[in-house]
Amino acid sequence: MWRLLLVLLLLLLILLLLLLLLVVVVVSATTIGNLTSVNQTDGSGDGSGRGTGASSGAGIPGGAGEDSDDDDVDVLSPLSMSFLGVFLSIVIFLSVAGNILVCIAIYTERSLRRIGNLFLASLAIADLFVASLVMTFAGVNDLLGYWIFGAQFCDTWVAFDVMCSTASILNLCAISLDRYIHIKDPLR
Q1: Alpha-carbon distances, residue 160 vs 94, 155, 169 (angstroms)
Q2: Neighbour tally for 21: CB within 10 Å
Q3: What range does the domain containing 11 cover?
Q4: What is the mean pLDDT of the chain?
Q5: Cα gap 143→110, rounded to integer Å
Q6: pTM, to two decimals
């Protein structure tokens, strides 16, 4: 009964993560389309994206005052942002999946239930929280260039980031201390 409940809980967590990854991809694709349309026209009416007068970027490197080829940047930027979004989604998915596998292995295999491996399970849970609560929203923030989830959730996200990262670091310290004790006094 407990194993079935654990498997259902893990499947629910994976489904939630896939939903978050879908949100990341959709938001990044929508933002890339908006950024491309903003880069193509800036309200000057000619569709060149260069504008006129002092606000057109004269004196700024790559602005209208210089002869530069901005077409390459406009074409490559959405492509590079798409690759970045896919790469971040893969990293997040692999992080969550790997940490879930570590937890399942320690839970299901009786010989792995030792103190040192329980530290590893604790580290896996902390890293699972980092991947699901911190990395997903950080990926959206990095892709968009701004925070879209509101000021209240920004404070909550920063608290998740600090708490989960600190828990991961403290688990690494506990694991290293455990290894040191076992090396220093192996008969314990």
Answers
A1: 20, 9, 14
A2: 20
A3: 1-33+77-111
A4: 75
A5: 43
A6: 0.61
